[in-house]
């Protein structure tokens, strides 16, 4: 005999939600490292082509604006604007294609990426945090002592001058992708200036300012460590992909969801995120109890994709 199961009157005691809010036109910085920090994505002509093609193809498919990127031998940093609220799909496509290409190229089968989740940090639409993150990404190879100047780094990275509207066409790599692949044979990787910086000054002046700041920051690193400390181009290209840094990677660190340099801006963004989590938790509890017509707060992503729940419209004001 069929017995109808009664709905729970309250959620399970162990219940706890930690949903990600995915909003349109959100400025985000994404970082991810390779498995065990090994140098799988080290610089090289073929490797750079793979990385930039996968970035450009995924950004084009999912409608993200690329502002800055730096691919180091064992991790990467991206600064993007998620125009349509699609960054999870963008990340899935880009990371999957990079992993497949490099596993074929390196003749390996294990996971290319670290098992921990990528770091996705939302930034306030303000000149101070945006400029700070741009400089952080520009300086990554210099601070790692891989090159005394960012422009001389052999890996795939963008530079301040690219923000003037630089774009380049990248051919689809021959490794892994078939001739009948659905991905285009060529993609255009365009670097765009973040809108927050254009509120401060015009594009030409901002590019000049960033170049000056980068040059000064590079000079400070050179003065601190000396020119002979930096890895030579030959050493960098001959790096064993299976090797890893002598210093162990720090684990169990906090993975922040918000960054902003200015404490007031960080507090404001955190407040918005907390409000979202509280509203999401209430909606999810009601959904668990069987209310399928409940509305979830704007930015609810996974529940909308998997269970087609109702989501409130995002109010940009």
Helix content: 25-40%
- Straight-line distance between termini: 55 Å
Compute the CA-based radius of gyration. 22 Å
CATH superfamily of the largest domain: Transposase IS200-like
CATH architecture of the largest domain: 2-Layer Sandwich
Strand content: 5-15%
Detail the poorly predicted runs. Answer: 1-5, 11-16
Account of the protein in words:
The chain has 317 residues and is an alpha+beta fold. It folds into 2 domains: 236 residues, Alpha-Beta Plaits (2-Layer Sandwich); 47 residues, no CATH class. Helices cover 37% and strands 14% of the residues. It has 9 helices and 8 strands. Helix 9 links the parallel strand 7 and strand 8. The chain is globular, with a radius of gyration of 22 Å. The N terminus is likely disordered.
Descriptive labels:
317 residues; alpha+beta; single chain; disordered N terminus
Task: Break the fold down into its secondary structure elements and pairings.
Blueprint: E1 26-33, H1 45-62, E2 64-71, E3 75-82, H2 87-106, E4 119-123, H3 127-138, H4 140-143, E5 167-171, E6 186-190, H5 195-198, H6 203-225, H7 233-237, H8 263-288, E7 295-296, H9 302-307, E8 310-311
Parallel strand pairs: 7-8
Antiparallel strand pairs: 1-3, 1-4, 2-3, 5-6
In a few lines, what is going on in this structure?
With 317 residues, the protein is α+β, with helices and mostly antiparallel strands. Helices cover 37% and strands 14% of the residues.
């Amino acid at each position: 005999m069929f017995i109808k199961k009664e709905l729970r009157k309250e959620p399970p005691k162990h219940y706890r939600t930690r949903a990600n809010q995915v909003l349109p036109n959100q400025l985000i910085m994404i970082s991810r490292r390779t498995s065990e920090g090994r140098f799988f994505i080290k610089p090289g002509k073929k490797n750079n082509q793979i990385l930039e093609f996968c970035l450009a193809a995924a950004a084009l498919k999912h409608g993200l604006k690329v502002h800055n990127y730096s691919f180091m031998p064992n991790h990467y940093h991206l600064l993007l604007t998620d125009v349509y609220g699609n960054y999870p799909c963008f990340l899935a496509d880009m990371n999957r294609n990079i992993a497949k290409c490099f596993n074929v190229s390196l003749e390996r089968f294990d996971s290319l990426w670290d098992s921990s989740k990528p770091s996705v940090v939302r930034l306030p639409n303000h000149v101070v945090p945006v400029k700070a993150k741009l400089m952080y990404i520009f300086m990554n190879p210099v601070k790692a002592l891989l090159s005394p100047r960012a422009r001389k780094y052999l890996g795939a990275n963008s530079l301040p001058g690219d923000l003037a509207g630089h774009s380049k066409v990248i051919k689809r790599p021959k490794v892994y992708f078939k001739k009948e692949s659905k991905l285009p044979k060529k993609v255009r990787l365009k670097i765009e200036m973040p809108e927050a910086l254009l509120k401060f000054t015009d594009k030409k002046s901002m590019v000049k300012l960033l170049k000056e700041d980068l040059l000064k920051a590079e000079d400070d690193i050179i003065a601190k460590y000396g020119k002979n400390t930096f890895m030579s181009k030959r050493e960098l290209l001959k790096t064993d992909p299976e090797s890893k840094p002598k210093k162990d990677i720090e684990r169990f660190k906090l993975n922040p969801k918000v960054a902003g340099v200015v404490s007031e801006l960080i507090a404001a963004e955190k407040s918005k995120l907390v409000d979202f989590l509280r509203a999401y938790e209430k909606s999810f509890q009601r959904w668990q109890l069987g209310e399928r017509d409940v509305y979830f707060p704007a930015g609810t992503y996974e529940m909308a994709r998997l269970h087609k729940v109702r989501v409130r419209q995002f109010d940009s004001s």
